[in-house]
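quick one, two chains, predict together pls
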Amino acid sequence: MKVKVISRSTEEFTRERSQDLQRVFRNYDPALRPQEKAVEYARAVNAAKLEKIFARPFVGAMDGHADGVSCMAKNPNHLKGIFSASMDGDIRLWDMASRRTVCQYPGHKGAVRGLTVSTDGTILISCGTDCTVRLWSVPIAGAGESEDSSRNVSKPLIVYAWKHAFWAVDHQWNGNVFATAGAQVDIWDHNRSEPLNTFGWGNETSVSVRFNPAEPNLLATSASDRSIVIYDLRMSSPARKLIMKTKTNSIAWNPMEPMNFTAANEDCNCYSYDARKLDEAKCVHQDHVSAVMDIDYSPTGREFVTGSYDRTVRIFQYNGGRSREIYHTKRMQRVFCVKYSCDGTYLISGSDDTNLRLWKAKASEQLGVVLPRERKKQEYLDAVKDRYKHLPEVNRIVRHRHLPKPIYKAANLRRTIIEAERTKEKRRKAHSAPGSISAQSYRKRRIIREVE
Amino acid sequence: MRGYGADLESLKDKKLKGQLSVKEQLYGQSAKAAAKTEKWIMPTEGGSLVAEGLEKTWRMKQEDIISEVDILSSRKACDISLRVLGPYTLVYTLNGRNMLMAGRKGELATIDMLTMNLIKNFQVKETVRDVVFLQDGQTFAAAQKKYVYIYNRDGTEIHCLKEHEAPQSLQYLEKHFLLSSINKYGQLHYQDVSTGEMVANYRTGLGGARAMRTNTFNAVIGLGHPGGKVTMWKPTSVKPLVSMLCHHGPVTAMAFHTDGRLMATAGMDRKIKLWDLRKYQVLRSFAGHARTLDFSQRGLLAVGNGSFVDIWRDSGGDQSFMDRYMNHSMVKGYQVGRVRFRPYEDVLGIGHSNGISSVLVPGSGEPNFDSWVANPYETRQQRREKEVRALLDKLQPETIMLDPGRIGTVRPTRATEAEEEDVAEVEKEAAIAAAKASALKHKTKGRNKPSKMLKKKQEGIERVKRSFMELPPERESKKLKKTEEVELPRSLQRFAKKKSS
């Protein structure tokens, strides 16, 4: 007869020297783990609570401007720096790590309306209400970090004067050309003092302009006649025009899905469109209670940040109808511009109270070097929380945010109004002949028409 | 992520549902991949006893097995003979590392089974009826004559739990940190040993249970009562979850299979029954007495009776056909008090009237342990870390339920309730409309005054509305009262409840 008994030798299962790691043996049989679902659920609740405990999104404020911050620009070649310009014509380059001004560029006589950096990161282009476009040279990354070069003051490389005030400027992602928005959309080259080309459709001023990240000849502008126009540089006439019910303040292209862009609108919503099919919005992002002033996408293309006139900054998922996160401070007044940092970890918001504020994109993230075990633990906690976040107990904790009272009340009011309108519509439809009133989806409702 | 999938049916948000179902699919795939790698990462093979030719496995004696097996394993079969302090009962820790033996007349001893060292031996000079290990394998609770006492590793009495009076059996739920006891009056107590609060205190009403076991699958406590009933309890309900009449006489022993689907009970009516816990029906019934029962990790059933221990094994795979696997007879005169399989080893511990014996039972233990569930080679640091993690993951007593997969699901009754209400409303409105539309008979000879016709119509509508109300009209309640009075026979009328007039 054959007999075999479990026999384990202690040497195989324990470590030899005290400097070795402990040996770990795994058996994934679920029978060894009773009530695992309850344990995971308990961990999800605890993970949600811990996330709230560690949520400290505000990193710091950059103080220095004398008037409200009107626009900002990121340098794609330098992670740590950000340019900002204010309503009194003061342009500064900040070092985000020390939150100090590295370089100042005085010169503009009125408000600076647009800032952008060229593709190679060496030239800063600014435009303002004093009808000038100025090109400045950007200091090289290493030189900007020594202490004595703070309060560095530069002269512009060149100043181009033109006929009308400018409202926005943007540079091609991969090229030599930049576009300004004003009474018309002008296309400039660095070395020419006159625009290469001028686009205009209708008599209205263009308020913002953005080049497409993947297609260098495509750009989108928004005008004060409530329209969004897409231009192609190779054609002499504009490509498409979309007229909405309210004005769009800013547009941002999704860097990972370059055919989609999101427009920040005056009616407190952001609308994501597919540039190929403009008759219906892909997604409507609702949550702000006042006009959305600026929008910027994360380099991952999965999230975007919006700053609004209601003194809050919100982060949305690229396909989410509601915001994932809201940041507010008592001292932060109307937010005029927001930027996502180039590594996707921070947001910078520039507001009316002359400060730029640095926030974390994930409020409870641990910054700095994270050990592999810590990182794995955090990933596990995120995954287990995501698994159960649709259940009421976990959802209540994950969704909870403190809102300032005016915003809370304004949001309630908006909700009541929208609900009332919806009920009215439903009743009208119910009491009218079937088929006489057609339901219009919310994504289409805000569009008046599309024009070729 | 190893638990069952999250319940997505209750979700109305289609986008979120889509995202979560994609993730759940991913988890399912990774679980399948983990199962495939099993044969490469499992270091140990299980035990087995294969009969060759005309031999039968149940004729194999321990001496034969010991002679065939290697030295380390043969050392695991041992006999500890202590005659003085009464019949002995034993319990192992969850990782099979430590064993605690308790003599009825008051002896307590903890032994480290890996090194066969005696950790601590002391006398309490009182009857000790039952013992359990608590959260780490070092603290333990003893059900003594009057109260339950908790001792630490060095034998120091840490706590005296006075609310448990005259306890007979103890059970410990590890994930919930709940210590529960039953006494001879049938009072079931649940106490949280991490915070010290008494969670529940129930009178079973069925007398003191001699058999008390935990179903490890769902943390439900099963009690076997002297009336033949087996009840299953959870700490948050006054009534038992399940109450089944199992035997014609008192239930003497019971055991739960590790997967929670099988229960073995033995009664004084000379029957040992195997129950299916999904349908609550008898699967198999054997004849025989049993003083004690235990299931091993691999599904072997040990039956202790008199001075014999029988071990049964299911050869069909679905526990419907159990045949005799092994048999161990002790020295005549030794009465077997308790049998317990040692986790992760092929060893069966027998507590009898003269001490403790361990016998080798090939194929009873799970050969491959998971270090993060139960590690027999735990170091002190790992043990401490494990205790802290267990406290962080402690489950609340409300999570104990018969079907543990129901956690994380949402009760869908609201929708159906609303639907029923809607349906009832529609019916009501239809009935009222019909009543309003009904034409009254046109009476002659001046009896169809408009006011009277209107009143009759209103009465008809009221009647219809009343029939949909929940409370019955007053006439019906008066009738009920009259019938109550009539029911009592005349001789007992004076004991009838007096009407408050």
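Residues 215-253+260-285 of chain B form a domain with the Thrombin, subunit H fold (CATH 2.40.10).
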